[in-house]
Amino acid sequence: MPTNDHPMVNNMSAIWLRFANKIDTVGNPGIEKKPILQTSPYSRTMFHPVRINMQNIRDRMKRRLFNQGPQTVGVLLKGQFNSVFKNRVKPETLETGKYGDLKEKSDSTKMVVISDGDLIRNQYSQLNDQTYELGRDRFTKRTFSNKDFMLNAVDYLLDESGLIQLRAKDFSMRLLNESRAEAEKLYWQIMNMGAPVLIVIIFGILYNFVRKQRFAT
What we know:
Elements: E1 31-38, E2 72-79, H1 91-96, E3 109-114, E4 124-125, E5 130-131, E6 136-137, E7 142-143, H2 146-157, H3 161-167, H4 178-183, H5 185-216
Antiparallel strand pairs: 1-2, 2-3, 4-5, 6-7
C-alpha cells in the first residue's frame, strides 16, 4: 500500500506484490530514505526458505498470526551513491592490466528500490494466448495500481516535476450522507418519478383550457 502523500504514490490504490521481502535500510548518513510502499497493518513475515503448499489456500487464516504491523517493501533513496567498484579492481583492469579513472561516488541522484521484481511482470494465459494488463490478477479479475506506480516512478526519476505533480493532484470527493440518503430515499424517488408526470399533466390541462378559450371567442 502507498504510505504517504508523496507525488509518486499520492491518490493511488493498492500495489500488487507476490513474494515481497521486508526492506531494512542501513545507517548511511549521506542517503535520505523515504518509505513509499508498505504492507497493511495485518502482516506476517516468514524466514527463508518457506514451504508453499496449495492447501494453505483452503485453510482459514488465523488473524492473530498477522500482527507484525506494516512492513516496508518500497523505498525512495536520495543522495550520492558509492560505486560498487569502490575499493575493488574493475573487470577491465583484470583484462588489460591498466588502471583507469574511477568515479567512486555518483552525483546527487534518486533511486527507487522495490523488494519484489514481480511488480513489473504481466500475467499470461496459455489457454487463450493472452497477456494481461500490468497489475491485473486474472484469477480475481482485480486490477491493481502497478502500471500507474511504474509510470509515476519513471516520471519522478526523470524529474518530470510538472507531470508528476499533475498526476498527484488531490481530488475531494463529495460523498453522500448515507443515513440521510436512506431516510429520504422514498421522497426523492417520488419526486423524480412523479414530478415530471405531474408537470406534463398540468401543462396539458392549461394548454387545452387556453385553446378552448381562444376558439370560443
